[in-house]
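TA notes, week 10

Several of you asked for a full example with nothing omitted. So below is the full record: structure tokens for the whole chain, then the designed sequence directly under it. When grading your own attempts, check the secondary structure regions first.
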């Protein structure tokens, strides 16, 4: 079947911007997710261009932050609909406390549990960024409840400092299988638009 090819932009290799090589693509990746037991590291959906004044950020005040734009909000809803159509079981949804991550979780999956472990890395020192990257790798190696997939919604830094993962476009999702020893095993990636394409291509819900 040509389903796997639908999830790749023309002329683009999945490994073009990162060292980790995908093991699964398209239908095969979706089938693995349908079985559960995986962890998805996802960047928040697309955001507006608001730049808060220095020192004004407040996790409890969405007005002081860059937030999802209309396209991002719709993308989150669409991704959630694709998960349902594809019968991908969802367990816990952990997010950065920033509103754009919390909103991505709630709009897509109906829930979000904020944690500072997934917050922005930008202001951290180099050693602290490395330490946070190790923490994210630990989260990716935590096995979900049986038959479920856990979701971690975060920012560019978590993708870069955990495994040097591709960060574009906003909303990109990287799928891992927790391992008994060593780091979690990288399976592949899906962009926001690809979830819907794959749902349509696989005839989900018909």
């Amino acid at each position: 079947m040509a389903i796997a090819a639908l999830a790749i932009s023309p002329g683009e290799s999945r490994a073009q911007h990162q060292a980790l090589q995908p093991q699964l693509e398209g239908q095969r990746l979706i089938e693995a997710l349908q079985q559960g037991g995986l962890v998805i590291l996802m960047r928040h959906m697309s955001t507006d261009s608001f730049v808060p004044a220095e020192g004004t950020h407040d996790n409890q005040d969405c007005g002081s932050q860059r937030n999802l734009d209309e396209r991002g909000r719709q993308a989150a809803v669409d991704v959630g609909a694709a998960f349902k159509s594809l019968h991908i079981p969802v367990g816990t949804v952990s997010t950065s406390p920033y509103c754009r991550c919390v909103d991505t979780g709630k709009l897509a999956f109906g829930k979000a549990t904020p944690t500072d472990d997934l917050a922005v890395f930008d202001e951290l020192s180099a050693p602290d960024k490395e330490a946070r990257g190790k923490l994210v790798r630990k989260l990716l190696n935590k096995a979900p409840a049986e038959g479920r997939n856990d979701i971690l919604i975060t920012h560019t830094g978590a993708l870069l400092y955990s495994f040097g993962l591709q960060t574009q476009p906003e909303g990109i999702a990287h799928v891992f299988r927790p391992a008994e020893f060593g780091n979690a095993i990288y399976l592949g990636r899906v962009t926001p638009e690809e979830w819907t394409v794959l749902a349509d291509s696989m005839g989900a819900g018909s």
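Confidence is low (pLDDT under 50) at residues 1-15. Use that as a sanity check on your answer.
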